[in-house]
Amino acid sequence: MINKRSMNYKVFSKNYENSLRKEYQGRNSEYSFGTRAIEGGPSHVAIICDGNRRWANENGVSVEEGHAVGAENVMRLVERAGELGIKTLTVWVMDTKNFKKRSKSEIRNLIKLFLFYAMRFKREYLSEDIRFRHLGARELLPKRLQKIIRELEQETAHKQQATLNVAFNYGGRDELVRMVKKIVEDGVDPVDIDVELLSNYLDTKGQTDPDMIIRTGKDQRLSGFMPWQSEPSELFFPNYYFPEFTPDRFEEVVKEFPSRNRRFGA
Question: What gap in Å lies between CA 41 and CA 256, rounded to an integer?
């Protein structure tokens, strides 16, 4: 059972954004990088944060509450990932397809959650050595959210110890389409196109590929997540919805990584 701390999720339907601000009690602990590092552990971990809606339905709460519990869980995983010495943590929290097909009210609440936690990241983690990156089709997001994302990326661009990638309105095929369009716009000579050049046109430019991809939600597929970057990734499918995927359960999965026999085609 997820620890809901002292948040009262029942009040969200009355005044969602104000309730988040009122009920949030602050960080559990100080961010400390590498204090629980795992020998042979992964450098880049990506999580497909799936199952918020189904968790909400099975627990008799609203979809908005399910997303709120999931968002709070992301922050807890950021801290645990740092303790485990993970250099890059990527969380996929909204697919481009869902951004188009979900109800307007659900999308509005998701945007409010992103705004709230982006501002919270800015308030609490700006002093830490963590770089923030957004992955996805940013131009389709509200101007206010675009502004906060841009500010966070600019203000943390010099950070080097760790990176948090938030994939919001991200889709793997959409990323590849945007990549091709930028290459065409830049007039790149086909002779110059190689793996390195293509990688530099992706949202993850300059980053290593994920060593492991974890998908919660009890489905065993990638659903188009990082089709280019996932080539060397080890895949893990823990049998939990994302709100149930606590830091301790996350650490248990990460500890499985060194036991994988990574042959890289050999």
Answer: 9
How many folded domains does the chain comprise? 1
Q: Assign residue 171 a region: left if phi > 0, alpha if psi is -120 to 50, beta otherwise? A: beta
Render pLDDT for 76-91 as a digit per residue (tens, 0 to 9): 999 999 999 999 999 9
Asked whether the predicted pLDDT for residue 109 surpasses 80, the reply is yes
Domain limits for position 121: 42-172+210-256
Q: Please indicate, yes or no, if residue 197 is contained in any of the structural domains.
A: no
Question: Could you give the CA distance from residue 127 to residue 192 in angstroms, rounded to a whole number?
Answer: 40
Strand intervals (E) in 49-191: 88-95, 130-135, 162-170
| pLDDT-derived band at 1, boundaries 50, 70, 90 | very low
pLDDT at 266 (0 to 100): 57
Residue 239 lies in a domain: yes
Dump pLDDT digits (tens) for 128-138: 999 999 999 99
Is there a domain that residue 125 lies in? yes
190 HSE (CA, 13 A, CB side): 0
Q: Of 202, 258, 257, which Cα lies nearest the Cα of 226? A: 202
Give the C-alpha distances (Å, rounded to integers) separating 166 from 78, 88, 132, 173, 257.
11, 11, 8, 17, 22
The yes-or-no verdict on residue 3 having pLDDT over 70 is no
Predicted model pTM: 0.89
Positions marked active-site: 50, 98
- Separation between Cα atoms, residue 14 and residue 16, nearest integer Å: 6
196 in any annotated domain: no
So what's the pLDDT on residue 27?
Answer: 53
